[in-house]
Design goal:
mainly alpha; globular
Length: 143
């Protein structure tokens, strides 16, 4: 028996591709809340603004992961209860984590690994971290 019940809301497109949901198994994620976090980021832009304040000092030809993608992946992981960067070795392949940062869940390249995320977390100096905290508090105070 097939019961095709429509969702009460539309899912956001990823790189102009329609996102669909089925329950046939296959590639799965237990972090569906990432779709809501992605929409909140699209409206508020907190991670985007935070990433813009963090210069990437690597050779541009060697950058595999954009700063926004790394910031979005790390904050999304924390929001889903993954407090340690080591979790990113598994999460980098998670289809909804890829959607959260704007990559295609099936064909998108894996996200940043644990060592890359750890370098991201340890890179800012103390004054820079204070500025990030101020930015976050200003962003959370916005309506």
């Amino acid at each position: 028996m097939t019961d095709d019940t429509l969702l009460p809301f539309d899912l956001p497109a990823v790189r102009r591709r329609k996102l669909t949901v089925d329950f046939d198994g296959g590639t799965q994620s237990s972090d569906a809340g990432l779709l809501l976090l992605r929409e909140a980021e699209r409206k508020l832009g907190v991670c985007r603004r935070l990433a813009e304040t963090m210069p990437d000092r690597l050779d541009p030809d060697r950058i595999l992961h954009e700063m926004f993608e790394m910031v979005m992946a790390r904050t999304s992981a924390i929001a889903c209860g993954y407090k340690d960067a080591i979790d990113h070795d598994r999460l980098r392949h998670d289809p909804l984590m890829k959607v959260a940062v704007g990559r295609c869940p099936q064909t998108g390249a894996p996200l940043a690994s644990q060592p890359t995320i750890s370098r991201l977390e340890n890179a800012p100096s103390k004054p820079k971290r204070r500025g990030f905290l101020r930015l976050c508090s200003i962003s959370s105070a916005r309506p």
